[in-house]
Amino acid sequence: MNWIKRMNTALKYVESQLLENPHVKEVAKIANSSEYHFQRMFYMLSGYTFGEYIRNRKLSLAAQDLLTNNEKIIDIAYKYGYETPESFSRAFQRLHGVSPRESRKEAVSLKIFPPIAFTLSVKGVKSMNFKIKTMESFKVAGKSIMVSTEGGKNFIDIPAFWQKCNRDGTVAELAKIAADNKGGVLTGALASVLCYKDTDTSENWSFLVGAETLESIEGLEPVTVPALKWAIFEAVGPCPEVIQDVWKRIFSEWFPTSNYEHDMGPELEVYPAQEASDSDPDFYCEVWIPVIEKNT
User: What is the pTM of this model?
Assistant: First the structure.
């Protein structure tokens, strides 16, 4: 429960500093967390990136200002951090569906985006099978795309990228590389490697579908996975539904009640060679999260 209290204390600070553009570094410090871990937890628990949350809160308050006082639209735009009325109008319309000027008309519907507060819900419906394991550094090669967590686009773009890699023969090529890898960390397994490129916002990721190999292979991008301590979670069932559920449960159920937090490093999905299709109820895969013990 201390973790929940720290997160909510951090969110109260965010609310008090909205007009000052609170930086995630300071907010994470109040939550007694690393920036990386705070942003991952925030996104998985709320469904919004930290940047989205700040923008939506400001635009919600801006809507109230437009309805309750006669301030000029340009002054409200500046108040909430927009450099021009045009950029404010575009952002306002994306959230509310109407322009700032139209919002002042009678009977216009606007969205209210209230402050978030986290609670811990202990359901006890199903267990999570995991193990903690320290691994040496290893190399992966594959193909990657940039994906964004904004608006949950990653949950659409990543499965689509897997389908593309299946169609164009990339998965078959990587499966052969994995099968030839006899003595590595991921013997016989495909892996996807998720790395943040921008730890200030954590909205943009590099997502790579690959296989472990010591060789440089033309046309495949190399990635070095550093030596880390991993929390390895089992996922059994049809994909991508089951693995997306495991991801959410790791951050909403396991992290808040464990003695670990996210370490700086990539995250992995590991797919061992098997007879089952990824649509079968007994399909097996794993989620690997780099972890360190929490500071007490």
Answer: 0.77
Bridge-based pairing state of the strands 138-148 and 221-225:
antiparallel
Report d(CA 177, CA 193) in Å as an integer.
Answer: 16
Same domain, 72 and 186: no
**CB under 8 Å to 293, separation ≥6 — which residues?**
259, 260, 261
Tell me which residue has tokens 């389908």. 163
Burial string for 120-145 (b: 16+ CB within 10 Å, else e) reads eeeeeeeeeebeeeebeebbbbbbbe
H helix intervals, the chain: 2-16, 24-30, 35-46, 50-68, 73-79, 85-96, 100-103, 154-167, 170-180, 241-249, 255-257
The 10s digit of each residue's pLDDT in 240-288 is 889 888 988 898 888 888 888 888 789 999 999 888 888 899 999 999 9
Q: How far is the C-alpha of 61 from the C-alpha of 86, rounded, in Å?
A: 18
Question: In this predicted model, what pLDDT tens digit does every residue of 35-82 receive, in sequence order?
Answer: 877 888 888 888 888 989 999 999 999 999 999 888 999 999 999 999
Identify the three-state secondary structure at position 227.
Answer: coil
Residue 164: which of 147, 185, 139, 181 has the closest Cα? 147
For residues 137 and 92, membership in a common domain is answered with: no
Please indicate, yes or no, whether residues 144 and 42 belong to a single structural domain of this protein.
no
What are the tens digits of pLDDT across the range 136-185?
A: 999 999 999 998 877 778 888 888 999 999 999 999 999 999 998 877 89
Domain that holds residue 241: 130-293
Q: Which residue has the tokens 């923008």?
A: 55
Residue 255: how many other CB atoms lie within 10 Å: 22
